[in-house]
UniProtKB/TrEMBL annotation:
Essential cofactor(s): Mg(2+)
Organism field: Bradyrhizobium centrolobii
Protein's name according to its UniProt entry: Citrate lyase
Lineage of producing organism: Bacteria, Pseudomonadati, Pseudomonadota, Alphaproteobacteria, Hyphomicrobiales
InterPro entries, per the entry: Aldolase/citrate-lyase_domain (IPR005000), Citrate_lyase_beta/mcl1/mcl2 (IPR011206), Pyrv/PenolPyrv_kinase-like_dom (IPR015813), Pyrv_kinase-like_dom_sf (IPR040442)
Tagged with keyword ATP-binding: no
Amino acid sequence: MRSMLFVPGDSPRKFEKASEGRADALIIDLEDSVVTEKKDEARKLTLAMLKGRRGPHQLYVRVNALDTGMTLADLAAVMPGAPDGIVLPKSRGGDDVRQVATWLEAFEAAAGITVGTTRIVCVATETAGSIFGLGTYKDCSPRLAGLMWGAEDLSASLGATEKASGGVFHSPYRLARDLCLMAAAAAEVAPIDTVYTDIDNLTGLEQETRAARRDGFSAKALIHPKHVDIVNAAFEPTEAERNWAEKVIAAFASNPNSGTLRLDGMMIDKPHLRAAKKILGQP
């Protein structure tokens, strides 16, 4: 999964348009993009979108945060539509995942969904306190599929006046990004890069996405359909990377009892083999 496109939960028209694109996943949003007065309507529309699904996209639903008191109502409304996963905003750590997982088990059973199949992706850096919970996601639940870092809400939590300048995040946001990446790697789930908000700056989007892939992120969240193809392409291995990976795998296949090898004048070992398999999508 490379691209996760947010779609407002109260807009079937935007959902229809997003469904025509090539995002790997659509996140139907019940949180920030829906005003309080329209939450009930958005829940009903979201259920209809889930039941009317078409195409290869995975469908996630971003519910409202646990501290709003609306999460249970969101889940009760949308789980009969069997979403592939739930996105939990403002997550504080593993305990929040365990709480949502417990609720999901009950809703799955009630809806006739195989228990344990609904995944959870957490937006894990939206408050100052959440940074200190990043180390608690490992082994918190087999449902956990990814950790996404977010900058927009974090700036409000910090009381910051600016997140970035010249297309480069300031240090508090780079810290949140990097720690989220490491937490996801430690928990063995997908690290997901934050949204790119300069909608028409497609060059900046490509640069940020390539930097995310370079550092280890495997997917990016999006807020506009025209970002999808750029992000998908940026996460594809280059020809040079594919050639290197194939040579590494072939070298170890020819020398199965060797822990280290010499390839093109460089020493390679088993971490290089794991990296090569990851580039080619091999287990």
